[in-house]
Amino acid sequence: MSTNNAQNSLPGNLNLDANANEVPLLDEEVDDLLDASGAQSHRGRKTTELWTVKIIDSDGTIKPSKLSVREALEWPNGRKIVLKFNNAKQPIGDEAGLLSGVLGLLGSDYEKFYIFEESWRKIITKNKVYNECVKQIFHFDENSEGTIKKNILKSMGKSWKETRLRLYDDFYEPTFTIEQNIEHRSLGIDREH
User: Fold this and answer.
1) Which of 142, 5, 18 is nearest to 84 (CA)?
2) Cβ contacts of residue 173 below 8 Å, gap of 6+?
3) What whole-number distance in Å separates Cα of residue 185 and Cα of residue 193?
């Protein structure tokens, strides 16, 4: 069974035609999927609501399942969520929404991606998180051009950047000294970071 089949029967006004002149950005398409599914979301990602997805066991058996983003992150070894893609190598269906939520949580994880780095390009743990987390949770065939991996890393990078900006807005006080700002940091962030 190929996991790269396009589904043109999705709700909403998504254009998944391979001959379309414009291909919507991954984040826009996922947001449209969330809107179409009626899912409640926070910044385009939901963590407690259930997504209807297909899972594949280690023996190749595919079964439907309902998972939240948090459950997907704690998913047991040997079972993976099957990702489907359109012809532009963008994830589609509820699995795309679940992927977006997982990538959002991974990208905002202070332990996986240090917030003290100046830019996403300088993060050296990207490939490790991709291989040890994303590839362990989701089942998909990587394309030879690397488009799928590139889009996944881009989505995690966006979440990382948004998290850094939110932390700066919430915890940085311009009238404080550097030491005072370090003491004023969010819980869960190491002093060195």
Assistant:
1) 5
2) 180, 181, 184
3) 10
pLDDT tens string 79-100: 999 999 998 889 999 999 999 9
Look at residues 159, 137, 166, 129 and name the one whose alpha carbon lies nearest to residue 44: 159
DSSP E strands in 76-193: the ranges are: 80-82, 84-85, 91-92, 138-139
pLDDT single digits (tens) 57-71: 988 999 999 999 999
> At which residue do the structure tokens 């991709």 appear?
130
* Start-to-end CA span in the chain (Å): 45
Q: Which two tokens stand for residue 87?
A: 């012809």
Distance (Å, whole) CA 107 – CA 156: 4
DSSP 8-state symbol, 134: I
- pTM, to two decimals: 0.71
Measured from the Cβ of residue 34, the count of other Cβ atoms closer than 10 Å reads 22
Residue 2, pLDDT > 70, answer: no
